[in-house]
Amino acid sequence: MLNADPQELSKFGDLAHRWWDPDGEFRPLHQINPLRLDWIAALAALPNHDVIDVGCGGGILAESMAQRGARVTGIDLSVKPLKVAQLHAMESGVAVDYREIAAEALAEERPSSADVVTCMEMLEHVPDPGSVVRACATLVKPGGWVFFSTLNRNPKSFLFAIVGAEYVLKMLPKGTHEYAKFIRPSELSRWVREAGLEVHEFKGMEFNPLTKRYWLSGDTSVNYMVACRRPR
């Protein structure tokens, strides 16, 4: 069975045509993309390296990594966002290989094939996030980097990420996130270690609703990212 929730795939598929609208439902992704891209690029070499973006959606991060010189494969199980990603890459002249395939299936097909694996804003949308972590660990070469981002599970994240972002500020469509699927850093750290990866660094991402500005910090209480490496 695929490690995917049909309702989640349908939800993002229905919004696929809005993926590259910087003022649409995916505006937050456009705003945070330069921050996460710079953070990834500061730790891992992208030019002339093989990168796999797991859960690539419409290709915002995948395309930006390709523009930095990486050879990028973007994978997703939601067909409509993938078609949007392919069309946008053609229009922008950026070379990205997009495939409709699960992370677990690609891990069986191409183990130890990537210098860098990214999996951003995806773990909280699948039934078994630990399985995706294991697949990412299998995909990366020894010495390579794996990056995850997700949402912490606590009262503050419920208030900020669901009540604030979806209902008060209306930054995201209602129902984008399900609180029970949020992941504590301790849980993600355990899955990472069990998959044979080493945690290198956690980084929080904060947002000021008055200035509409995002920035990276050490506060992982709501949105956070983690950089991992596979031992050589």
UniProtKB/TrEMBL annotation:
It is an enzyme of class 2 (transferase). It catalyses: a 3-demethylubiquinol + S-adenosyl-L-methionine = a ubiquinol + S-adenosyl-L-homocysteine + H(+); a 3-(all-trans-polyprenyl)benzene-1,2-diol + S-adenosyl-L-methionine = a 2-methoxy-6-(all-trans-polyprenyl)phenol + S-adenosyl-L-homocysteine + H(+). Keywords: Methyltransferase, S-adenosyl-L-methionine, Transferase, Ubiquinone biosynthesis. Its EC number is 2.1.1.222, 2.1.1.64. One of its GO terms (biological process) is methylation. Pathway: Cofactor biosynthesis; ubiquinone biosynthesis. It comes from the Bacteria. Belongs to the methyltransferase superfamily. UbiG/COQ3 family. O-methyltransferase that catalyzes the 2 O-methylation steps in the ubiquinone biosynthetic pathway. This is Ubiquinone biosynthesis O-methyltransferase. It comes from Ideonella margarita.
